[in-house]
Amino acid sequence: MSTHHYYQLQGYFRELIELKTLKSGSKLPSEREIGEQFKLTRVTVRQALQNLEAEGLIYRQNRKGWFVTPPAVVYNPSSHLSFNLYVTEQGFVPHTEKLMQQIEPANAYIAQLMNIPEHAPVLYLHRRRYINQRPVLIEKMYINTRLLPGIEKEDLTQSLSQLLKNNYQREYRDMDLVFKSTSLPSSAADDLGISAGQPGLHIERINYTADKQVLEVDYEFWRHDAVTINIAIRD
């Protein structure tokens, strides 16, 4: 196989994945091993694998290697289901890791949204979320502590929607959503264990109570191959 015909290598691995000879989540041989097997340079191997990654067939985890991409989870923003619930209902295993939390002063934008004074305390929460032990989503959110006093003392690795319902008798009702296709910023890429500049989905969400008060402002960064947005519109 000629070093400049990396498309042949792409086709080889694409066929193995489509035939499920290489199963979802399985690890590919190292780039060195692939190069030795097919007598290709490391540059050619890397180009073929990166093209397969762009197709969403494989993904790279820093310091771990290349893996076959699992099926994407389907996310319907209009359903109001929590991450834990819609992931579980689709047969996957969710997990949430808290990376940081702190009470900090609200900036002008957050204060205006929450109808609180600028610099009033809000809870900043930074989480990493997993599907089947694969990190797929980074959340950075601001929570209205005026409506949810003491929330910083709760276990914030759990579903926030369930926490609000069980402990505060509040529920998310309305929401504003903005979806952006983007290159992942270095901070989100580092948190996900991938290279900066990888394609991703950026979601900005504002969650409201039934009486139109803002409970939470949420910024999410998803791996591009981990989620499919599905919104049903009916008359």
Automatic annotation (TrEMBL):
<protein>
    <submittedName>
        <fullName>UTRA domain-containing protein</fullName>
    </submittedName>
</protein>
<keyword id="KW-0804">Transcription</keyword>
<keyword id="KW-0238">DNA-binding</keyword>
<dbReference type="InterPro" id="IPR011663">
    <property type="entry name" value="UTRA"/>
</dbReference>
<dbReference type="GO" id="GO:0045892">
    <property type="term" value="P:negative regulation of DNA-templated transcription"/>
</dbReference>
<dbReference type="InterPro" id="IPR050679">
    <property type="entry name" value="Bact_HTH_transcr_reg"/>
</dbReference>
<dbReference type="InterPro" id="IPR000524">
    <property type="entry name" value="Tscrpt_reg_HTH_GntR"/>
</dbReference>
<keyword id="KW-0805">Transcription regulation</keyword>
<dbReference type="Pfam" id="PF07702">
    <property type="entry name" value="UTRA"/>
</dbReference>
<feature type="domain" description="HTH gntR-type">
    <location>
        <begin position="3"/>
        <end position="71"/>
    </location>
</feature>
<dbReference type="InterPro" id="IPR028978">
    <property type="entry name" value="Chorismate_lyase_/UTRA_dom_sf"/>
</dbReference>
<dbReference type="GO" id="GO:0003677">
    <property type="term" value="F:DNA binding"/>
</dbReference>
<dbReference type="InterPro" id="IPR036388">
    <property type="entry name" value="WH-like_DNA-bd_sf"/>
</dbReference>
<dbReference type="GO" id="GO:0003700">
    <property type="term" value="F:DNA-binding transcription factor activity"/>
</dbReference>
<dbReference type="Pfam" id="PF00392">
    <property type="entry name" value="GntR"/>
</dbReference>
<dbReference type="InterPro" id="IPR036390">
    <property type="entry name" value="WH_DNA-bd_sf"/>
</dbReference>
